[in-house]
Specification:
- There is one protein chain.
- The protein is α+β, with helices and mostly antiparallel strands.
- It has two domains: about 10-125 and about 275-285; about 135-265, Aminopeptidase (3-Layer(aba) Sandwich), CATH 3.40.630.
- The chain has eight helices and twelve strands.
- The chain has helices at about 15-25, 30-40, 85-90, 100-110, 150-165, 170-190, 230-245, 255-265; strands spanning about 10, 50-60, 60-70, 75, 95-100, 120-130, 145, 190-195, 200-210, 215, 250-255, 270-285.
- Strands 1-2-3-4-5-12-6-11-10-9-8-7 form a twelve-stranded mixed sheet, with helices on both faces.
- The chain is globular and about 60 Å long.
Amino acid sequence: MTRVAQLPIHRATEADCPAIVTFLRNHIESSMFPLSNLAHHGLGRDHPNAQRIWIETDGPYVTGLIALTESGSLLPQFPPGRAEFFAAAVDGEKVAMILGDAPQVSVLRTALGLTRAPLRTLNVEPHFSLDLSDLIVPEGEGTLAPLSAAPTQLLVDWRVAYEVETFGGEPSALRVDAARQIARWMADNSHRVLMSKGQPIAMTGFNARLPDIVQIGGVWTPPDLRRRGHARRAVALHLSEAQKAGVSRAVLFAASEPAARAYRAIGFRQIGEFSLCIFKKAQVANV
């Protein structure tokens, strides 16, 4: 068998960032995490979402990359046939999760030697996109407000419940991280609550943001308030707010069929599959 030639792979520097952005924007709908991290944190190491990036180049052009955040999120964007080379670039690094286009996550996990590592979850979820000119804002109960409008402890409880329902785990072990997450969302002004008669009834937010596109994440409705359209209304109102600020497109991946139905109802259309591979504890890449 003829071995596929390896193009130069190297650790990116600030000088590489314009070419990285150009490459990622050509794959923007599956590149929101690395693009948003780069825009907000650069190539630093002083934030959980700060990241190091290894790039494959052909002359002045980036042809593939892999990013690793300080919290251990591995974010691939490369042709699946290049997985072994990008795995080698991060050999020996600690990896808590792999997030990205489903085929890339699958081949990368194998190339990293992590197929037998204990998993917290391995989800392959429908990946959706929406041109905000096609956004449907449903009638219904509630108006949107900042997270500060809701009791912080309630939001922490909601975040813990979301983690347990989506990924599993013991609630008591998740509370500290959930409190930190809510505090970051408040500081970043990235999330909103849907309020009705002074009470929070749903939560929505953006887990990655650029001036022209956002990625939705952290959507939650308590079980006793579901099947009333609260989540879809919260998401749609938040997107309408973003559209007024200049955002023209939104993407997301849906954790369940009811969630997927809600997103389709406000205009989203499936474009592929997104995978979340989360390990029970951080693993060392072993190529």
